[in-house]
C-alpha cells in the first residue's frame, strides 16, 4: 500500500492529510495560526508559523505507519502571499497576505508602467491589490531598507517547500497569481519584470504542478517522519488544487465554491482571456492547460453576516438540537417561495470583483416591505449569492468557456437548498464529491502523478474522485428564477453612481 500526502496551507491553518492511492483519507491533522493586522486593511502572517504547522501535521499523519511507503508529497497553498528572503534565507519581514489591501497606489503604478491592455494580454488580469506584484512594489516603495536585502521572492506554499527540500520552486498555477507570469507561455514575463524593475533572479524556478520540484532533506525527514528523498510535487494554488480534488481537469467541467467568498471555476484546454479583466485566467494544474475563475467576494460571508446579526434565536435552537445554525436557517428559507415574495439581495458587503470590479459598491435588500419576514430575507440572501455566481457564469459563457458538469464545494455546497438553487439558476446538473478534502486531495493526486503512481492528472481523477450527490435542474424553477435574475442584473447599473456618491461622503 503506497501513501500520498497532501498539505493544504490555508490562511487560518494548515491541514495535512494522508491518503491511500485510491484517494481514501487515512489520517488528517490541522494546526491553526494567527493572522496579524497591524493597520486597517493590512493582513500579515509569520512564514515560520506555516512551516512549524507543516512539520507538526506531517509528523502527526506519519506516526504509526510504514513511512517507506510514502510515494510523494504535494502542497496546496493560499495564493498571492509574499515571502521575502535575504542572502542567508532568513525571512526579512512578515508575509503580506492575499487579503491585504494596502497596495492601491502600486496597482496604479503597474497599470501606468505597463498599460492596462498590455498587462491583461500578458498576465490575463488587471492590476489588483490581492496579487503579489503590487505587494513587491509596496515593499520597494515603503520599506527600501528591507527591499535592498531581498534575494529570493516566494509564495506561501513555496516557502514550506523550500524548508522541506532546499529548493526555490513554484508551480504555474500559483505563479499565475503573482502578476509576473506570461500566462500563455507559462514562464516569467521579461517585459513585466523589466518595466517594474524586479530582478528575475529573485524568482523561483517555475514547474508544472505534477513535476518533481525537489526531495525531502535529511533535516526535514528527522523533524517530520517523512523519509529522506521523498519527492515533492509542484503542487498548486488553493483553487487549482481544489479543481483536481473535485475532478475538474477536463473541458466541460467546472466547480462552484460557496465559502466566505464564492468562486466559479472552469477548466479549459485553450487559453481564454477576458479583455475587460472581469475574471481571472490562470495556468491550471493540468500541464499545458488553463482555468478561468470568477469571484464574488461575500458569498458565505453574506449568510454569516445575516446569521450573526439577525438569527440569535436560530443559533439558540440549533444549540439545543445539536445541529448547525445554517441547517435551521435552511429550513426557514424553504418556507419562502422562489423570488422571496419579490425581495432581492445584492451581496456586495465587501465590494465586488466579478463582473463589476467596483470597490465602491455595497450590499442591500431591494423590494423590502411589511409583508416580508425573516424566512424571506434568509432566502433572498441565498438567492442573491447564487445570482452573483450566475454573473460569473455568464462572463465565462461570453468568453466561450462553457460547462455541462458543475461540482458544488465549500460550506454552501453542503446545503441541499443552495445546491438546488445553483442547479435551477445555472440550469445544469450540480453534484458533490465524496471526499471533503478538495485542495489536500488535489495536492496528493499531483504528488501521485509526479511519483508515477498515476499516469496523468486526468487518469488519477477518474480513479480517485467519486460523485456523492447529484442535483438536476427543474425547468419550471429555472423559468421562475430567470425572472428575478434579469431584474437583479439591472440593480448594479442603476445604483453605480449612488455607490460613488456614498463613497465620497
UniProtKB/TrEMBL annotation:
This is Xylulose kinase. One of its GO terms (molecular function) is D-xylulokinase activity. Pfam families: FGGY_C (PF02782), FGGY_N (PF00370). InterPro entries: ATPase_NBD, Carb_kinase_FGGY, Carb_kinase_FGGY_CS, FGGY_C, FGGY_Carb_Kinase, FGGY_N, Xylulokinase. PANTHER family: SUGAR KINASE, XYLULOSE KINASE. Its EC number is 2.7.1.17. The keyword Ubl conjugation does not apply. The record marks 8 as: Important for activity. One of its GO terms (biological process) is xylulose catabolic process. Substrate binds at residues 79-80. Belongs to the FGGY kinase family. Keywords: ATP-binding, Carbohydrate metabolism, Kinase, Nucleotide-binding, Transferase, Xylose metabolism. It catalyses: D-xylulose + ATP = D-xylulose 5-phosphate + ADP + H(+). It comes from Candidatus Ornithomonoglobus merdipullorum. Residues 3-245 form the Carbohydrate kinase FGGY N-terminal domain. Catalyzes the phosphorylation of D-xylulose to D-xylulose 5-phosphate. It is an enzyme of class 2 (transferase). PROSITE patterns: FGGY_KINASES_1, FGGY_KINASES_2. Residues 256-449 form the Carbohydrate kinase FGGY C-terminal domain. The active site is at 238 (proton acceptor). The keyword Transmembrane does not apply.
Amino acid at each position: 500500500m503506497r501513501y500520498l500526502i497532501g498539505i493544504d496551507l490555508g490562511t487560518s491553518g494548515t491541514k495535512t492529510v494522508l491518503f491511500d492511492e485510491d484517494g481514501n483519507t487515512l489520517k488528517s491533522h490541522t494546526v491553526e495560526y494567527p493572522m496579524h493586522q497591524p493597520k486597517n486593511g493590512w493582513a500579515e502572517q509569520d512564514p515560520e508559523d506555516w512551516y512549524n504547522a507543516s512539520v507538526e501535521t506531517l509528523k502527526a499523519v506519519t506516526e504509526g505507519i510504514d513511512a517507506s511507503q510514502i510515494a510523494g508529497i504535494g502542497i496546496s497553498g493560499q495564493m498571492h502571499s509574499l515571502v521575502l528572503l535575504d542572502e542567508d534565507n532568513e525571512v526579512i519581514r512578515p508575509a503580506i497576505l492575499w487579503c491585504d489591501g494596502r497596495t492601491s497606489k502600486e496597482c496604479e503604478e503597474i497599470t501606468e508602467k505597463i498599460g492596462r491592455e498590455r498587462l491583461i494580454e500578458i498576465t490575463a488580469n488587471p492590476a489588483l491589490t490581492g496579487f503579489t506584484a503590487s505587494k513587491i512594489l509596496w515593499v520597494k516603495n515603503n520599506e527600501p531598507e528591507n527591499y535592498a536585502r531581498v534575494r529570493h521572492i516566494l509564495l506561501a506554499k513555496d516557502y514550506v517547500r523550500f524548508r522541506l527540500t532546499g529548493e526555490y520552486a513554484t508551480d504555474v498555477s500559483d505563479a499565475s497569481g503573482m502578476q509576473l507570469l506570461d500566462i500563455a507561455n507559462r514562464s516569467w514575463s521579461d517585459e513585466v519584470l523589466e518595466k517594474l524593475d524586479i530582478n528575475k533572479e529573485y524568482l523561483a524556478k517555475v514547474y508544472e504542478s505534477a513535476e518533481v520540484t525537489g526531495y525531502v532533506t535529511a533535516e526535514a525527514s528527522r523533524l517530520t517522519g517523512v523519509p529522506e528523498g521523498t519527492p515533492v510535487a509542484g503542487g498548486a494554488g488553493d483553487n487549482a488544487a481544489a479543481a483536481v480534488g473535485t475532478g475538474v481537469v477536463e473541458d466541460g467541467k467546472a466547480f462552484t465554491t460557496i465559502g466566505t467568498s464564492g468562486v466559479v471555476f472552469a477548466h479549459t484546454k485553450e487559453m481564454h482571456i477576458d479583455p475587460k479583466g472581469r475574471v481571472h485566467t490562470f495556468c491550471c494544474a493540468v500541464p499545458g492547460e488553463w482555468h478561468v475563475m470568477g469571484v464574488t467576494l461575500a458569498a458565505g460571508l453574506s449568510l454569516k453576516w445575516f446569521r450573526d446579526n439577525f438569527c440569535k434565536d436560530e443559533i439558540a435552537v440549533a444549540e439545543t438540537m445539536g445541529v448547525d445554525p445554517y441547517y435551521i436557517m435552511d429550513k426557514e428559507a424553504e418556507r419562502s417561495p422562489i423570488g422571496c415574495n419579490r425581495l432581492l439581495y445584492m451581496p456586495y458587503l465587501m465590494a465586488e470583483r466579478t463582473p463589476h470590479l467596483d470597490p465602491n459598491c455595497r450590499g442591500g435588500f431591494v423590494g423590502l416591505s411589511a409583508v416580508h419576514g425573516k424566512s424571506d430575507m434568509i432566502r433572498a440572501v441565498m438567492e442573491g449569492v447564487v445570482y452573483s455566481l450566475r454573473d460569473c457564469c455568464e462572463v465565462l459563457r461570453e468568453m466561450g468557456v462553457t460547462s455541462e458538469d458543475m461540482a458544488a464545494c465549500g460550506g454552501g455546497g453542503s446545503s441541499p437548498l443552495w445546491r438546488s438553487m445553483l442547479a435551477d439558476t445555472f440550469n445544469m446538473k450540480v453534484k458533490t464529491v465524496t471526499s471533503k478534502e478538495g485542495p489536500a486531495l488535489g495536492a496528493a493526486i499531483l504528488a501521485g502523478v509526479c511519483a508515477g503512481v498515476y499516469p496523468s492528472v486526468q487518469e488519477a481523477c477518474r480513479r480517485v474522485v467519486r460523485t456523492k450527490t447529484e442535483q438536476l435542474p427543474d425547468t419550471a424553477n429555472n423559468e421562475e428564477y430567470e425572472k428575478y435574475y434579469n431584474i437583479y442584473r439591472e440593480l448594479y447599473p442603476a445604483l453605480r453612481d449612488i455607490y460613488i456618491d456614498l463613497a465620497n461622503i
